[in-house]
Design goal:
Layout lengths: L1 H4 L2 H8 L16 H4 L3 H14 L9 H8 L4 E2 L8 H9 L7 H23 L7 H26 L2 E2 L13 E2 L1 H18 L14 H14 L3 H14 L22 E5 L12 H5 L15 E2 L1 H6 L6 H5 E6 L5 E7 L16 E5 H12 L3 H13 L13 H12 L6 H8 L2 H8 L17 H6 L8
Antiparallel strand pairs: 1-5, 2-3, 4-8, 6-7
Helix pairs in contact: 2-4, 4-7, 4-8, 5-7, 7-8, 8-9, 8-10, 9-10, 10-11, 10-15, 11-15, 15-16, 15-17, 17-18
Length: 464
């Protein structure tokens, strides 16, 4: 899959858009009438959709800004100048509809959606073998659903475009409940269409387990815990994932696409525009061999304190000190899950793990509610971290204990903001973690719709 992505930078550019970022209609560098005819054409276009996940408006940067830094796990730190300004504003809830990261998330997500819509529109009439056709439909539905899930979490009221945009179409906002309802339908189809696994040459594509994991997450979001349980048990019983024995072995380019991994955004270094910027974005300059480190997405003191003594996940996830170029010990938290040695700046081989099996076990515990089975599931995850088990007698409510476990197990993996929303603890956790930064009155559960979208779609209503 990584080798396939090497050729896709120009395809992504050519998959294109109209004058605005919501009204997107991808094109190829061949005439459309001659392009979507055989299986090779559809695979190329589908690969361009995967490549779109690397975009700075999606997993490349905007998503960790909006779904990790927005919560209590991380902050931007004291630097609030230049590019750092947009991160500081998001962290402190002081951004406006002109914020560049918010605009990038909207446009990058809809760009992937637009490409998937063309694939889904054309595949039915193409000369493609039925089994492969179904798989392509499943992959396109999964990728489109992944984008819509993040857009619904972030913005709530969004256009739900399911067909290729035609100039002159009126885009209409729908509420998040409508989006989630569509995602349930689409992901059920995707799960049934996709294989459980792929040969080595196609590792990295969406699998049946990836579609099912996103489906379960959507079902939990809309309160359908019973249906989520059915889906999650299917993943546990049928799809062959397992916890790695050592938490530290989840991270690093040499450990990608492992037995615990369900879906990863694939990056590859080599100066071809397919590398990730995580190492440079998150690391201090003093620990890098190449380029500048910005120390963004910095773990908060609250995040550090969430790890109990003896938790093996701490050292694999974050660090608190480094030695600067003047041999001075500097104390500042930074994320270590994405540390690597990129050959050039912002060109790391590190993938982004979107879903993994530990999340499935914790979601199943959530779907079940407090029970012995739920604690057994949580304790599977804790045992790997070197911790003793918890039970009903452990202080705190079941929801508090589960949310705490999700925080330390899935730290810096973009789950925190959706978790805080789903558990209804946004204000409590944020004001506890960053009382000197965040004014409780400024906390909002939805991001502003980008101003450029309001300018070109006067029927859109801004979030408050």
């Amino acid at each position: 899959m990584k080798r396939i992505l090497i050729i896709l930078l120009t395809i992504c550019v050519a998959s294109a858009c109209s004058d605005d970022f919501t009204d997107l209609a991808p094109i190829s560098n061949r005439n459309e009438a001659d392009f979507f005819n055989n299986e090779g054409d559809f695979i190329v276009s589908l690969n361009a959709s995967y490549a779109g996940l690397q975009d700075n408006g999606v997993y490349g940067r905007a998503y960790w800004t909006m779904f990790e830094m927005r919560g209590d796990n991380t902050d931007q730190g004291p630097d609030a100048t230049g590019l750092a300004r947009v991160f500081t504003e998001i962290n402190a809830f002081t951004e406006d509809p002109l914020n560049e990261q918010i605009d990038a998330a909207w446009s990058g997500s809809y760009r992937v959606i637009a490409n998937c819509n063309v694939i889904l529109d054309r595949i039915g009439s193409a000369n493609v073998e039925e089994g492969l056709q179904n798989r392509i439909i499943g992959e396109a539905l999964f990728l489109r659903s992944l984008m819509y899930y993040h857009l619904a979490i972030a913005f709530g009221n969004i256009p739900l475009q399911l067909t290729p945009f035609v100039p002159g179409d009126d885009l209409v906002q729908v509420d998040a409940a409508t989006v989630y309802g569509q995602l349930v339908t689409d992901l059920e189809t995707a799960e049934s269409n996709l294989p459980i696994s792929y040969p080595a040459s196609d590792v990295g594509r969406a699998t049946r387990g990836a579609a099912a994991t996103l489906l379960a997450k959507v079902l939990l979001t809309i309160g359908q815990d019973g249906q989520a349980e059915i889906v999650l048990r299917r993943i546990v019983d049928q799809y062959g994932y397992q916890l790695l024995p050592n938490y530290a072995d989840l991270w690093g380019a040499e450990n990608e696409n492992n037995a615990e991994s369900i879906f990863e955004v694939q990056f590859i270094s080599g100066g071809i525009g397919q590398g990730s910027a995580y190492t440079n974005d998150f690391s201090p300059s003093a620990i890098l061999q190449t380029g500048q480190g910005f120390g963004r997405n910095r773990p908060t003191a609250s995040m550090q304190n969430a790890y109990v003594t003896g938790d093996l996940r701490f050292e694999a996830s974050m660090d608190t000190t480094w030695i600067d170029t003047d041999d001075v010990v500097v104390v500042q938290n930074f994320v270590t899950k994405y540390v690597s040695d990129p050959p050039i700046e912002n060109d790391s081989d590190i993938n982004f793990v979107v879903f993994r099996y530990a999340d499935v076990l914790l979601m199943l515990a959530e779907a079940l509610g407090e029970s012995q089975e739920s604690y057994d599931l949580i304790n599977q995850v804790r045992a790997r971290a070197g911790l003793t088990g918890i039970d009903a007698t452990t202080p705190g409510t079941f929801e508090e204990k589960l949310l705490d476990e999700r925080q330390v197990e899935l730290a810096f993996e973009n789950h925190r903001w959706p978790d805080l929303l789903r558990f209804g603890t946004v204000v409590e956790k944020l004001t506890e973690a960053e009382p000197d930064v965040i004014n409780p009155a400024s906390i909002r559960t939805l991001f502003f719709i980008p101003q450029r979208e309001l300018d070109i779609n006067p029927n859109f209503i801004q979030n408050e």
